[in-house]
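Work Package 4 report. The design task specified in the project plan requires that, given a folded chain encoded as structure tokens, an amino acid be chosen for each position. We show below one input record used in the internal validation round.
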């Protein structure tokens, strides 16, 4: 949940603030392309998210002493891919809109269904089939399913390949849409 909020709101509000303050307008006068700017935003947010999530993971592990059955490297790679997908999703919202209220509302509109339907708080096994189908739309569901498979069952890359593929595809799709719809100025 921390990863989701950090990625979606962190990058979303930064780009929005840059646009509203006129910083993006000044950047547009440079030879910097939208792709380069968005890539820098993604990489900086990814670095921060990886550091904070790692500190939380190891801090909680030192207190609770839980055991992970799977590869720590696979779990780290999954964290990076999941964070990229969430950051890219946040960019798709922030790339186009200039109203803080609208961006905040849209990000909340995304986060609440993701939290309720991803399995963070409770299992969806007893839910109607249509609820489970809807939950598969969200990247957080695939991130959690894969992380649980690695940590609890010791799953390898082949066992979570469909989740990895979904996260990679959504990352590329969100980044492409964000770069395509990016606006430098408030209109």
């Amino acid at each position: 949940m921390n990863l989701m909020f950090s990625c979606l709101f962190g990058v979303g509000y930064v780009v929005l603030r840059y646009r509203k303050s006129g910083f993006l307008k000044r950047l547009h006068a440079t030879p910097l392309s939208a792709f380069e700017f968005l890539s820098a935003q993604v990489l900086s947010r990814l670095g921060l998210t990886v550091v904070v999530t790692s500190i939380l993971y190891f801090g909680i592990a030192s207190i609770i002493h839980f055991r992970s059955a799977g590869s720590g490297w696979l779990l780290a790679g999954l964290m990076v891919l999941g964070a990229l997908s969430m950051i890219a999703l946040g960019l798709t919202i922030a790339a186009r809109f200039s109203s803080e209220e609208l961006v905040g509302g849209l990000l909340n509109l995304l986060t609440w269904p993701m939290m309720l339907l991803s399995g963070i708080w409770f299992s969806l096994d007893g839910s109607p089939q249509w609820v489970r189908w809807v939950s598969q739309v969200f990247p957080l569901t695939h991130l959690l399913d894969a992380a649980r498979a690695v940590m609890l069952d010791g799953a390898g890359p082949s066992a979570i390949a469909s989740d990895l593929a979904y996260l990679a595809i959504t990352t590329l799709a969100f980044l492409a849409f964000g770069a395509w719809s990016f606006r430098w100025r408030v209109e």
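The helical segments are 2-21, 23-28, 34-64, 72-94, 100-117, 129-135, 139-153, 161-181. Validation will be extended to a larger panel in the next phase.
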